[in-house]
Amino acid sequence: MASTQQSAFEYVQNGRALLEGHLQKPSLVVDEMRKNNIFSKKQVREIKFHKNRSVKTRKMLDMIIKKGEYASYELLKILYNTRNQTLPRTNPTQNQPRHPDLHQWISCFSFTDDPDLQSGLVSESGPCERYKRQLRTKAVEFLHAKWDQHMHFLEDKAKCKPFTYIPVVLDTDSSELSKTKSKYKKARSKKLKTYIPRDKGKLSPGHLLESSEKKILLVGKPGIGKTTVVQQVLNIWAENENPQESYMFYFDEPSMRSMSHSSQPSSLRSLLFERYLKPEEGAEDVVLCDIQNNSENVIFVFDGIMDVIGNPVLNNILAKELLCDAKILTTCRPEAEDCEFLSDWPSYRVEVQGFNNESIHAYLKWRLGTEDDYVCSVASNDALFSLCHVPMYAFIVTACISFSPCEAKNHPCTITEMYVRIFRHCMKRHGDQNVEYLDKYIHDNMGNIKFLAINSFQALLAKTVNLTEMDCKDNSVQHAFLTSSAAKESSTGHSFAFLHNTMQEFWAALFLLMTPGNITSVLQQCQTEEGKYLKYIVSFLCGLLSSDIAELINCVVPEDQIREISDIYLEKVIDSFLRPAILQGHDESHTELDADLLFVCQCLYEHQSPKACSLLLQKVEYELDLSGKYLDPQQCCAVSYVINQSTNKNVCLYLIDCTFSDPGLRLILGSLKNLQCLRLDPTTQCQVWKAALDSGNPSDSEGLLRLCEYEIHLRVMEKQDQKVWERVGEVLKHKRPEKVKFCLHLVDNSLHAANSLGKSIFDHLPNVEAIRFVKPVDLRRSLVAWKMEVRSFQQDILLHGALYQMETGLKRVEDLQAVLCLASTYSLEEQSKFILSLYQHIGKYENDEGVAVLPTLQTVFKSFPAVWYIHFADTKASVLLDVMKLQNVKKPVELWWSNDECDMSLIHCLPYISQLRFNDCILIQYDDTKGTIEGLLKLFCFAKQRQLETGEETLRMLSTVCSYSNFPFASDNKDEQSDFLLDLYSSAKSFELELEGQILPSLLTVFQSAQPAAWVLDLGTDKASILLEVLKLQTEKKPVRLKGWLETDQSKIESFLRCLPYISQLRIIPQDESDTEVKMPTLTSEQLKRFFLLHLLDHGDLDNTETGQSSVEELLSVLGFAHSDDSPERCLFLLDLFSHGKDYETQTGRKVCHALLPVYRSAPAVWSIDLSERKGSLSCNDQFQLSLWGALPVGSEWDAQLASSLLQALDYTITLSGWLPTVTCKAVGAVLGQSAPGEKLNVSLIPDSISFQGAALLFKQVKEFHKLKVNEMSTAKLARLARSMTCRRPMVVEELTLVLSRSIPKEGVQCRVLSGLALLLRVWTVRVLNLIDCPIQGFLLTTLLCHQGPLTIRQVSRSSSHLKKYGLLFCEVCYCFERWVCVCFHDRLSKETRQQLAVVVYEAQDEELTQCFLEKSGSDLSNCTLDWDVLHYLLKTTTPHNPSPSTSGGAESETNTYLISSLC
């Protein structure tokens, strides 16, 4: 507060007018005066009697002035203490006429007798407060200077206009929009830009000033209003004294450019006191200390951050390393937001988006005054109006109109043309020339113009707006365009800047026009991250190349030269921004730049050339994909212009996820006639259709219908312009081949709009194909709530349709039902909810209005649902009964209930129910079988009681609706239906015990009618006895599926066996491994039955008198093997059963086959086995195989097909052992002859005795074996056959295996066997000789040396001592076999064996033997630890064909390993 020498009485009298007009809450002041005994109660009542605030204040002041000095002084004290409530301040957030700041007024009075208030006066008059006033004074002077510069281009009458802030749109939504890629786009590598959000908040500069955010970033394109916003923040701060925000430092763009690339200022003191404002003498330390200690009261405004901040002080402030609690406001262009510094600078992002429609009109009226003709002419010109959304362009438009109405007669529609007019006007004013002599004056000053253009271009390349080394003479042309810069340069020269940086870009484009050789370089720089800001020059350049503008700048560059430049460079401009470029950045990494199709359209709009637009459309194949973009009105104007230049072919336009303003949409609508297709997302379609209907132009609506496939998207709101609905009706009244589809987007509280929609479409409803509702993208409400709103809207429109039909007599209810697609849109469950809700809605309307609407809607109620889905938690049975009576048709009812929700009133609905189901209640919704059963039993009890009380056949009706084959389900659910019925029977029995009443007889028809495909019994539970009782209720035998039988006990098995007389067929379900610890292999059906029988025989007592042999027979019968059945299947099953029973006894030690003896004793005398039908292999032992061979018919009765089937059943595997008579050999030989070529025939011939003739018959018809196993006996006979010239036959054996009867045969036996093998090898073709199971000593293998041909011998490795003894001889054998035999080691040699073998080779010291050893071992000595001598020898003898052996191992071979790895 400031001091004053006036008395309190004089101060109140002098300020009376202020108080009467602006004092707030006078009643509060009166109450405080009453507390201090200044006013009496009567005086308080007199003052408060008046209702008007001003009258109250006047009455109060009259009383106080009459009371004199003391009362006046008390009043001033009260006003000071309650100043935040009673004394208004200038509101910084509202555009209202400003009132005096009474806070300042009260602070000017000196409360000399009050120490507390006086201390406040003293504190407010210190050096810090005086510096704050200095800052405010500087801010006001700075704003006035900037405003004067802004008005520089206007006529004198406009200069007197005060600074006025016209609001611009500020948006804080930082959500990222997804981009739809087209064929000429590439994915961004950086974050996506943000655009206008759906939920727009109303922000103002006052909000930014008062916000608690400490780091605020304002982003916007050139001229959009960023500087205007921060200057308004500065203006608000300068006009108000807020102790919490007392210091503000504003650095404009020239100052920022100057400091960003300089090391000065080097400290906070120099930045604030030398660069900005110096405090009074001797106060610097105090002020700086206060700023540092109370940094929360400091605000920095950095207007125009470009890219890199090279100044350390600015960096530290922005990084919060200096004055960490200070508020920072920064502004930048969109391209600077992606720079390294700002991209990592966390901030509260605000996007400046320019003027909206209201602001444009307000700005035009403010600038053009009462000249409404000019305002209307601009507003009616869509192209010109679209430019005005950018405040800078709005200023230039109004400037052109204000200073040259004649020249602006046609109102320039391109940005470049406006800047050219500004250029010509400034030159005209500077030279004081008439229009007819202006071109000559410009031409005479070309030297100065070119000098200014060069400096503008060079400054732009240096990323600065400050132009130095300019001519300081007053008559220089530069003074017509430049103003003195606020930046303080270190050099002695002056610094100048343009009014706006867009004017600098215009002059840089003018320089390129004068020096076209630089255009290519600029285009290349535009494709880099560092130089992409230069693209704004290109836009101006394209405008300067326009033939329309060439006439205006002919005095600067000749028209012929302009046309020549246009022909050379225009296509290069299109290609530069249309084709994405991948360029090298500073970090040598690839940077992907987006193709900027939208910018190309803007350039072509500036150029105003249909030929250039056609060239662009050809390059993009007439497809303009602008999906995901924010299109301001001027950009929409450019896109519309390009589309309208297409004359030969229509264009495809993609605008998915785009955002527009209303003027922009109107411009897009103007190009519909030139579009072939228009792709829009549903939200965008709503915007476009609203603009089309608002325009009232029928051609817009018709064009949209054609392009949108006859879909009309509308946002339905409670408060909606009725003209929109009227125009919808006008669109519908035209008859077309295609019907219209309505797509409605419901917003909150949109129910009352149904009446408006109905009125617009009821007259033309036959022209509507469908009405559907679009699911919202941003679910601010739940999906369930949206569905309920849609349902209510449909019900409301049906109600209005019925009223319309009653009023006009036109059948509209049926048409409405068809276009709403209720039956196809809703599920059965939703259909039931809809009908019941509709009935209640109509009933409420009838009760309120007294109008009977229900009869008119009969067709709706009778059309659906086909099945009632009733959830008694949401539905009353009384409502259901009313609707059922209305329909008067029996329908199935699907109940969703639990025990607690069952409604006994359902009994009244039974006459209208055909089936009672619990499908979803059990299977889907609750999985509560127990609760469902309990509710059903209660319903039966209630029905029985009601029947006794009323005599109605309630119980019979309930039993009837439950008596159907699939009860309680809608379809066949095998396991679930069986489980439910068994649980129902069990619960009914328990229910009878609790209630001591009979309920099972009522359920008899239910169980008899239920026809599950098969009863399912889990033998692991106690339901076998329940199943028995239920099966007894059935009128015929039923199939049963058995599961859970692996883990059961004897009592449960016995209970199950009692069910066998009532079972027609038993199917065994494989045990699920997850349900039991017993693991089962995958079995066929027959194997599963066999396994089940054996398991049952093992765990159940089937041998007693009660169950005995009859149980086994019954089991076989229900399994499909009845006693009277002598089929091959039964015989084969019994054979397999007995065989596996024996195996089972062998494995488990338990006796199970004795229980099967009665079955086998009653078996048929003749066993019939059809092997051709057998799918699995025949499992039988050697003796049984011999029996089979003996039973086979030979001679004329030989059955080749039977032999082939038998061989296939045995899986082509035959084992012949023991004594083999000649007749058996003959039969087996015949069977072997039936094997087809390529079949893998496996024969084990290990007889105790076989004749030479038998061996000859055995191998007479076979030519190939996959595997052949022989012993000493068979080897001798086969060798004899090989020596016989008459019996010798060629034979191919893939693997010949030799087994000996003794583990350690005599040496003579080994020699004879190997001799016979050698003979066989000479006659037969043997691939592999398997001696793994044959204990033959290694040195005896020399017998096989006579073999000529490839052969692999498999022999198990011996112990180290054995290898030591025979190693050398074995290696010699390997050497001898080198060219013919490959020796393989089974299970691979161990580490010790391999090491021993290597040592043996070393001791032999034979080079050829060593190479043979390395070859056979693959030179692999991994894990071997060898002495250096051995290793050195092996390496020395390595040939180029034998790579060096690789070793690894212990410490003593580490040097060897290194040497070998280097040799390899």
Automatic annotation (TrEMBL):
PROSITE patterns: CARD (PS50209), NACHT (PS50837). This is NACHT domain-containing protein. Keywords: Cytoplasm, Immunity, Innate immunity. Residues 4-82 form the CARD domain. InterPro entries: CARD (IPR001315), Cytolytic_pore-forming_toxin (IPR052090), DEATH-like_dom_sf (IPR011029), NACHT_NTPase (IPR007111), P-loop_NTPase (IPR027417). GO terms for biological process: innate immune response; regulation of apoptotic process. Pfam families: CARD, NACHT. It comes from the Eukaryota. Signal peptide: none annotated. Residues 214-336 form the NACHT domain. It is found in: Cytoplasm.
